[in-house]
Design brief:
By secondary structure, the chain is mainly alpha-helical. The chain has a two-stranded antiparallel ribbon with strand order 1-2. Strand 1 and strand 2 form a beta hairpin. The protein is globular, with a radius of gyration of 23 Å.
């Protein structure tokens, strides 16, 4: 199993791991959830956000200190004091603490004068404490418990305002999360039976010293992948992600920018195990591709800005799982960070997001594209994607089948952007090409940098996995082009009806959950009975038309 150096070959060779700095890094990492948890337990009811902002600021300081100490220690996927050290832990702690501080400061103004602000502040800090514990842990049992704790704390936030739609969404999320927890517990049992330990050190050492996975470990990898798919809101268990928009905006930002990304982080953390489980990787590619394609197509029918953001998250999570299934672990990490920052900005600046959407809605609609121009644009997109290969080639990096395959996928993804230039003249087309080239170069530049800094197993995806991903991306381009070719045609009309309804997947899942376990309302809330709750849930699509 080939790995790249965590802090780059030159730095790694120049420094020897320092136990003292490793201990300091581990202590700093442990201080992050400790500060957040203590603030959640002992925050004042009179001024809850004063303590929350202070705790989030201190936690962010410890996260920065942890990253500095990890760099000085030269730690390469090592552990100390029960903390997993390395670039992945440092990046994730900085990301979670940075976003947490922004969300806490936003919430202080957003919920000013709200009588539920004390409870909100405590559960928000509790969620951040659980997520940072998960990020730093070197033990699978601790990771599983922290993931469950973050889910329960988020459930309290989602149900805080008592809105019927929010209660339904939280109920469906609770059931899906508990199903994922069951899969995770079974997987941990299989790992312990095969390895004799749940520490990541022992698991990675066992995988690295063996020629292949045993049946229990292969089954464990498959169960972990199933749990990740469920908690990442993959179709058809995605409905709760769309309906939690009933929760306050900062909670939506916390969910879409942070908690829903945990599945991708866990796949990256367990990359040595997952890289040896082709069945689990193929399942990630299949489920992720289907979710990515359908969610991206459904997204174009949305008339609600927040619902469109939710479908975007669903599609992005699918694409992240595709990257993990293809063994592109460093790209999945880049995607996770970029998606978290983008979604946090999109929700916390929701006013300007609505304004930007209104400006976009005034632009001309779909433009008819001739088949010949479509073929030429697709060829141009593939050519632009291929130019990104010059970056790793120029600096002496490896350019193989994996890089060529991903360049092709990126080229297909650029086709819609290039097609937008067909509505203008030569200047618009030139601008589209230049922007696409800039995106490609920037993406491959980050790809090359992450490949050299982040320790990860060599990509070993099967040709079937690459074929599924390429077919899904190609299908997405073809269907979008068909709608653009004949926006008023019969195919576009049929697709719009089904896509606007979300293929009725969430309605079927909602009926099933209500039959198995209907939500029980607490007395005194004055909410509708269960039957009316079900009716409200099955008609959530009408909110889109009301917001148009």
């Amino acid at each position: 199993m080939q790995c790249m150096g965590t802090f780059g070959p030159g730095i790694k060779q120049a420094m020897n791991p320092s136990p003292e700095w490793q201990q300091a890094a581990a202590a700093s990492a442990l201080a992050v959830p400790a500060v957040l948890g203590a603030a959640a337990a002992f925050s004042s009811r009179r001024a809850p956000f004063r303590a929350s902002v202070a705790a989030a600021t201190i936690a962010a300081g410890f996260a920065l200190l942890q990253a500095v100490c990890t760099g000085l220690s030269g730690a390469d996927s090592s552990s100390a004091l029960g903390v997993r050290l390395g670039l992945l832990t440092s990046v994730m702690l900085l990301l979670v603490c940075g976003l947490g501080l922004a969300i806490v400061r936003y919430s202080r103004v957003y919920l000013d004068g709200n009588p539920a602000s004390a409870g909100y502040s405590r559960w928000l800090l509790g969620t951040l404490a659980a997520v940072t514990t998960l990020v730093a842990a070197n033990n699978l049992a601790v990771i599983a418990l922290a993931w469950t704790a973050s889910s329960i704390a988020l459930h309290q936030l989602l149900t805080l305002n008592g809105r019927p739609a929010a209660l339904i969404a939280a109920h469906k999320k609770f059931l899906a999360s508990r199903l994922a927890d069951v899969c995770l517990v079974l997987a941990l049992g299989l790992v312990y039976s095969a390895v004799g330990s749940l520490n990541l050190d022992a698991l990675h050492a066992w995988v690295g010293s063996s020629s292949g996975l045993t049946t229990p470990l292969a089954a464990a990898a498959l169960l972990i992948a199933v749990a990740v798919c469920i908690k990442s809101a993959q179709l058809p268990l995605h409905g709760w992600l769309l309906q939690v928009m009933e929760a306050p905006t900062p909670i939506s930002a916390l969910l879409h920018a942070g908690v829903v990304n945990i599945g991708g982080f866990l796949m990256i953390r367990l990359a040595p195990l997952m890289a040896e489980a082709p069945g689990a990787q193929l399942m990630l590619v299949a489920i992720g591709t289907v979710t990515m394609v359908l969610a991206a197509l459904i997204l174009i029918t949305r008339v609600s800005v927040k619902v469109a953001l939710a479908w975007s998250t669903c599609a992005q999570m699918g694409f992240m799982l595709v990257q993990c299934g293809l063994g592109l672990w460093h790209l999945a990490l880049l995607h996770l960070v970029a998606h978290s920052l983008y979604k946090a900005h999109a929700f916390l600046s929701s006013g300007s997001t609505v304004f930007a959407w209104r400006v976009t809605s005034l632009a001309p609609g779909a433009v008819r594209v001739a088949p010949g121009r479509l073929a030429a644009t697709a060829a141009l997109g593939l050519s632009v994607g291929g130019t990104g290969l010059l970056i790793p080639w120029f600096i002496g990096g490896h350019v193989g089948v994996t890089e060529v395959g991903f360049a092709s996928l990126l080229g297909l993804a650029l086709v819609p952007m290039l097609l937008q230039g067909t509505a203008g003249g030569a200047g618009a087309r030139l601008l589209g090409v230049l922007v696409s080239l800039g995106v490609t170069c920037l993406y491959f530049g980050w790809h090359t940098l992450a490949d050299g800094l982040f320790a990860h197993p060599a990509a070993g995806a099967s040709s079937l996995g690459w074929g599924l991903a390429a077919a899904g991306m190609g299908l997405l381009v073809v269907v979008q082009a068909a709608i653009q070719l004949q926006p008023q045609g019969r195919l576009a009309g049929v697709l719009h009806r089904w896509l606007f309804a979300g293929l009725f997947l969430d309605e079927r899942f909602t009926r099933l959950t209500f039959r198995l376990w209907a939500p029980r309302l607490r007395a005194g809330r004055g909410l509708e009975p269960d039957g009316e709750l079900l009716h409200a849930s099955l008609n959530t699509k009408s909110h889109d038309l009301q917001e148009a």
